[in-house]
Amino acid sequence: MEKSIEELVFIVEETPDGGYMARALGVSIITEADDLEMLRSQVLDAVQCHFTEEKQRPRIIRLHIVKDEVLAL
Predict the structure, then answer these.
(1) Is 73 part of a structural domain of the chain?
(2) Residue 49 exposure: Cα atoms within 13 Å on the Cβ side
(3) Which of 12, 58, 61, 62 is CA-nearest to residue 32?
(4) Alpha-carbon distance values, 72 to 7, 15, 28, 30, 68 (Å)
(5) Cα separation of 10 and 62, whole Å?
(6) Is 59 within 8 Å of 50 (Cβ atoms)?
(7) Phi, then psi, of 18 in degrees rounded to 5
(8) Which residues on neighbouring strands pair with residue 31, listed in sequence order?
(9) pLDDT tens digits along 10-52
């Protein structure tokens, strides 16, 4: 029996075309969407698909949103 994950962290980054991509740390889950509201829904759906048994699903899903800004002088 696999040990359940208490918390699953996703790194969220903006894509070049203006959407968002979320990549889970330690688990092979990647999803993307046009906006953050849809991305949240996509992440929940992807986690449910990956962890088919409810008791194996993480209790907490954390989205770590990374925004890269470049300033030039």
Answers:
(1) no
(2) 10
(3) 12
(4) 38, 21, 36, 32, 13
(5) 6
(6) no
(7) 100, -5
(8) 22
(9) 999 999 999 999 999 999 999 999 999 999 999 999 999 999 9
Q: With H, G, I as helix, E, B as strand and everything else as coil, classify residue 72.
A: coil
Rounded-to-integer distance, Cα 40 and Cα 37, Å: 5
The CATH number of whichever domain residue 51 belongs to comes to 3.30.2390
Are residues 32 and 19 in contact, defined by beta-carbon separation less than 8 angstroms?
Answer: yes
For residue 45, give the 3-state DSSP assignment.
helix
Residue-range definition of the domain harbouring residue 51? 7-66
> Per the confidence metrics, is the pTM higher than 0.85?
yes
Q: Which amino acid is at 25?
A: L
Domains identified in the chain, total number:
1
